[in-house]
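Incident log, structure service

09:12 report received: a user says their structure output differs between two submissions of the same chain.
09:20 pulled the input from the user's history:
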Amino acid sequence: LELQAIRVSKDKCQNVMKILKGKCLDRPRMKSVVVDPADGGSRLILLHESVQCSTGEDLPADTLAKLKEAGLTPFITHQLKLEYEYFTAEQILKQILPAGVEVPGSFETIGHVAHLNLREELLPYKRVIGKVLLDKNSPRIRTIVNKVGTIENTFRVPEFEVIAGESSLETEVKQHGAIFKLDFGLVYWNSRLEKEHARLVDKYLAKKGTVVCDMMAGIGPFAVPAAIKGCQVYANDLNPDSTKYLAINAKVNKVDSRIHVYTMCGRAFVRHLLGCSTNEGAGAAGST
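09:34 re-ran on a clean worker, output below:
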């Protein structure tokens, strides 16, 4: 950017800024006052991009008169270079992806992992998309994954490809006062359901002493908050990785004495709770 600027001593910046109210550079993440590269003891007040004339003729007459009275005209020209760090991920991707290609605008966040569902037309550019998103969201995000194909396995866990960053998908999420540890590549988790999790827990499971039966508990988004509220919870899931992390989360949140974890199919779990005689047991864990 080529901007008009006013050179002032450091101690006069505040007074001059009052004169220039509304006429200084106004861009996100950019300062309107910078150190003068020609004199470290002075400052440059960068004027709004609409101010193009070095004599200030495109400023309001009263503002220009005050500047002239203070001996602050004519202005100097200052070159401001916008680096990669300045631009957002969306701005960068719009410039480097082919024209007409839709730029990915959002992603799901699971701890340090960002989850994308890239359209087929974007797959040839997945690595550069991942790199840009990682750059612009670090250190909060350390891994970028893209969902691969359709969900076809028994446990309904999507397959992911790491397209940027660390390979580990083991992470930690905090929701409605609870901590959840999980491996995003091994268990089902949807961060967008946080409000629904909280709504159901508050509406149906908030009474201390309630007995809760969760047949498909996952890693505990309902079971753990319910136990925190004082419920006795019987939680089951067919996926052994889910129940592994469910037990971990019960312990992390100090409610392991109120959560009873099972790894069975739903029918076997219900029959077990009802005290029915059954031969399904562990062998039924693989059934549906």
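09:41 both user submissions now match this output. Likely a transient worker issue. Closing.
09:42 reviewer note: The two ends are 64 Å apart (CA to CA). The mean pLDDT is 90.
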